[in-house]
Amino acid sequence: MAKNIIVLGAGLVGSVIARDLAKQHKVTSVDINEEALSKLSSFGISTKIIDLGKPGEVKKVVAPFDLVIGAVPGFMGYAMVKEVIEAKKDIVDISFFSEDPFQLDELAKKNGVTVVTDCGVAPGMGNIILGYYAKKIKVSSYECLVGGLPVVREWPYEYKAVFSPIDVIEEYIRPARYVENGHLITKEALSDAELIEFDRVGTLESWNSDGLRTLAETMDIPNMIEKTLRYPGCIEYLKVLRESGFFSYEEIDVNGTKVRPVDVTAKLLFPKWKLKPGEEDFTVMRIRIEGEENGKSKKLEYYLLDKYDRENQIISMARTTGYTCTAVANLVLIDKFNRVGINPPEYVGEEESNFNFVINYLKERGVVYEVKEY
Length: 374
What we know:
alpha/beta, 2 domains, 7-stranded parallel beta sheet, 7-stranded mixed beta sheet, 13 helices, 29% strand, globular
């Protein structure tokens, strides 16, 4: 039975989420950007131009809907989710806000709503996979390496962004947490760079980023780490910018005008990082899980190499992020996942039928995780 869904945010990922859900459900997409919304009407999606950053607007607009999808920039995410909870609506969110989502757990339980946060590719699908295996075996180690990259490398950054520029820059400055021998370690972002060879891709550079997120709290696993992937050499440029203050949120005075360097940097860099129409990208992710099952050592690898969808002109990062979100959204809609409160994706993966549903949903859309024991 078709449901009434609202998608908050019509960016590169939010628009793909709306298009996918519109195949089965009645979908309304909301954004302040009229141009972004205009591209969705041909897919049978209703649109509304609304400033979702205005207090009270989210609560008002979500009122008539069965389910909310959050696809706004990270800096808006926490307040948006809070308003959705106050409106007593279930939500699946990919905004990846920096605040601790469990701060909203009590409110979500009080209002009887299901909230799934961080429901993208990583964080997101990586959490779902780990959540599944953590229920089946005694996991001792989890490593997730992930990156979204342009097929064509352009000097100097050899990178293209599919999220808001501030959210991308946040990856380069937010301290990275990982778990080593049972201890939570915090290092600066872009640290511990290493070159790693990937099947059908070649050599990429990995570095510490804060991708574990809720896993550091929800999982009792002695070794866990997530690292971001870029083309070799990219992070040296980023370190220079960061150390020179270009990513700073501290206001400086420029000829009598107060400005945040990060805002200027975002304005300058995002046009260089923006994917041009038809420009192709790919997503690569390698997850390795080690543990013990029935007294025997077990090692698993999940490998994803997803590419730009030429037929539908959908970028890979939007596919891998968006379809994970829509898979879980459908689980919520059919009442297969209805746990009240704040739910990071690892909770979704705990139930085998839900895990298989997500894997098969992605496979049907050409997002295929190759699995092997090593």
